[in-house]
């Protein structure tokens, strides 16, 4: 372990996910218990650019384990290498890396724990690569789509919320003889849709990884009707698209790392089903309800492990790594892997086969 004069900083970046506070608590307690000082950067990388760093003590991190969101605040807009500024010329991007380096130096910060998704981890990796900053990453996102780890924290809570939503939709579907469509988040990966669809007993699951043919979806619903089932449950990932078709884009956020925000795939599917079958069909978009609120026990434990092991890594001087879950062990992988792409559901993933054996249609 390093001497006890070291100072570290923690930041949370990108969309919030249940378990962020558990990571902050796990890492901060480990630093404090080892005699170190620890700061929290307010609102992700914005705090490092603008010098908004708050000391974290036992009092500040008390009672936060079960709380959703992040006590440090977050944003998916402030990239120090491409910092969005609105001035008389409109939206311009400035390189503000030197401000980050100055603030790290000013507070004598030895290393930075970056808790984030692919965007924030990619920024952390760039700070390490191009500026020599010591960084340890923790993989956060409800989407479970980060390369280099089998599981991100936040996913279990989102999957549980989506499953609960399917259970609730079932009662209306059954009572009203309707097709109920649920659109879930996940960006370009279908982890939430697949797991919640299996857990909730969906009849159709549409994933970004398997472009769908609407005729196949209709076939399944008609077959259920012919077998005396007057309702169906369809789970649609927000990134699902028809064969040869486009993604459903809800908005563009120019300042953001990933500028596209998805939305509308479920509504599109529900409309087509109603038109083609004559069965009343309704879409529900679960949205931020699957991202907020208290983390499940699984996410609290996973997030705590990530935070503690990330701090241990800092104390040992092992930097430029990301914490990763592999075979139920927290291991360190190269930080550069994290932001280098999206981890999608493999087409030969067991749960897809399981779904097919159950008779679930994937629209192909
Ligand atoms: O990455 C998490 C996530 O919730 C995605 O599932 C979703 O597509 C996106 O963030 C929404 O982003 P925003 O909070 O900017 O609307």
Commentary on this structure:
- The protein has 364 residues and is an alpha/beta fold.
- 37% of the residues lie in helices and 22% in strands.
- The chain has 11 helices and 16 strands.
- It has helices spanning 20-33, 45-50, 97-106, 118-131, 155-176, 191-200, 214-226, 265-277, 297-315, 335-338, 350-358, and strands spanning 7-12, 37-41, 53-55, 78-79, 82-87, 90-94, 109-116, 135-139, 179-184, 204-206, 232-237, 249-252, 260-262, 281-285, 321-326, 329-334.
- The strands form 4 sheets. Strands 3-2-1-7-8-15-16 form a 7-stranded mixed β-sheet, sandwiched between helices. It has a 4-stranded parallel β-sheet with strand order 10-11-9-14, with helices on both faces. The chain has a 3-stranded antiparallel β-sheet with strand order 4-5-6, with no helix packed on it.
- Helix 4 (118-131) links the parallel strand 7 (109-116) and strand 8 (135-139).
- Helix 1 (20-33) runs parallel beside helix 9 and helix 5 packs across helix 6.
- The chain starts with 6 loop residues before the first strand and ends in a 6-residue tail after the last helix.
- The mean pLDDT is 96.
- The structure holds 6-O-phosphono-beta-D-fructofuranose.
- 6-O-phosphono-beta-D-fructofuranose is lined by residues 15, 76, 117, 141-143, 185-187, 238, 261-262, 291.
